[in-house]
Amino acid sequence: MFNRAPRTFALIIAVGLAASCCALARADQPAAPAPAAEKAPAEVIDWTRSTLDETASVLEIASREYRPKSGTGPVVHLVGAIHIGEKSYYEALQKHLDAMDLVMFEGVKPGALQSTDNATDEDRATITTARIRLLAIAIEKSRAKDKKLPDSLDAFAASASNQVKRLIETCRVDGWQKPLTYSLSPDGSTFDLVSLGADAATGGDGAKSDLKFSAQKPLSDDEKGASVGIQQKMATALDLQFQMTGINYDRANWVNSDMSMEALATRMKSEGQSIEPLMKMMDGSSPMAGLAGVFLGMIKSNPRMQTMVKMMLVNTLGAADDAMGNMPQVGPGNMGTFFKVIVEDRNQVVIADLKKVIKDKPNLKSIGVFYGAGHLPGMDKDMLALGYERGPVTWFKGVVVDLKAAGITPAEAAQYKKMAEQMLKAQSGQGRNKTKTPAAEPKPAPTPQPASTK
Description:
There is one protein chain. By secondary structure, the chain is of the alpha/beta class. It contains 17 helices and 15 strands. It has 2 domains: 4-106 and 227-453, no CATH class; 111-224, no CATH class. The strands form 4 sheets. Strands 2, 3, 4, 6, 11, 12, 13 and 15 form an 8-stranded mixed beta sheet that branches. Strands 7-8-9 form a 3-stranded antiparallel beta sheet, covered by helices on one side. A two-stranded parallel ribbon has the order 1-14.
C-alpha cells in the first residue's frame, strides 16, 4: 500500500491542479442561500462522474442532446469538456463534434477581436493597439515555425490555417476600418505594424496619432509561445493530452462564442475581483504556477506519484458537481462571486449567440456547444427555458487509471475516492448538505467508442 505522506501530497496537488485545470470552464454555478424547508430541492443532473470497478478508475464527461418541444429547430448538444485527458477521449470528442453542422466553442477572446460598432475614438485606439499586438504574436509564431518572417500579410493569410486566417483578416484592419501597414527591415529580421489613427494620415495627436508595434513593449516568451502554461505542464506530467492540442479547432464550421478578455476583466472588477492572478496562474508566470511546475516535474519522474495524482484527479473532478454546488455564496469579493462571473456571465454570451444562430440559420440541423462541464448545469436550465427538452446522454471516458497496471488494489482505489470526496466536502463547506433530485434521463443513445452511456 502507498504510504500516507506521498498519498496526502498527491491529494493536495490533485485538488489544486484540478482547480487550475477547470478555472475558466469547470466551476459549477454558485449555490443560492439555503432554501426554506418547505421548498422542493432543485433538480440536479450530472455532467461529470467517476466510476470504479475491479479493473479501472474512470472519469467520465457527458454530452447531452436537447430537442425543441415544438419540433421546429436544430438539435442542440451540450458537450462537456475537461482540459486535460486521454488521447482517445479527444479523438472520440472530435468525431462526435465533427458530425454536427455548427460547433460553438469556449475560449475567452482577446480584446482585439471585439467589434468596433458604436465605439469611441478612444475605444478604437485601444482595439487597434490590441489588434497590432495579436497580429504580431501570430507573425512571431509563424516565424518560429517557418524560420522566416512572412513577406506580406496577404502571403501570411494565404498559408495560414482557417483559424489563424480569420484572426489575420480581423486584425489587419484597425479600429477605424483602415488596413494596417506591414513592413520588414532591409535584412528581413524585424517587422513593424502601423495604424495611421483616426485621420488615416501620418503624425497627429490623440486619436489621430500613429499606433506602431515598434512602440509597444517586446513580446514576452509566453506571448511567443515559448513558455508552457500550467495545464500543458499538468498534461505532460500525467501522460495525458492538453485539450488545445488534442482537439482540432481549425474547422470552417467551428466558431468561438465567449466573452472578450476586456469584458471579463471589467465584470470581475465591478464585482471587486481581478482576473490577473488567475491568468498568471494559467500561463505559468505566477509564483504559485512556478511552484506547481516544480511539483509537476517531480510527478513526471515518479510513476507512483503520477498514478496517485491521476486517481485524485479522477475523483475530484468526478465529484466536483456536488462540491461546487455546495459552495457558499457570501458578499462581494468571495469565490461564489468569482464563479458567477466566470461561469454565469459567460454562459449568457453563449446563449445569446445560440439564439441568434437559431434565428439566422434555420437550415442547421445540429449545433454543438463545446464548453467546460462546469458551465453546463446553467446552460441546461437555459435550454429548458428556450423550449427545449433533454434527449439522450453519452458519457465519454476522459481519464482512465488501469488499477492492475498501476499496482493499486480495488480497496486502495476506494480509499482514494473517499479521501477526495472528503477534501472536496471540506473545501465547499462541511455544514452545507445538498439534496440531489436526480433528473429523469431519456433513453441513452448508441455509444461511440471509447465512450460509455448512462
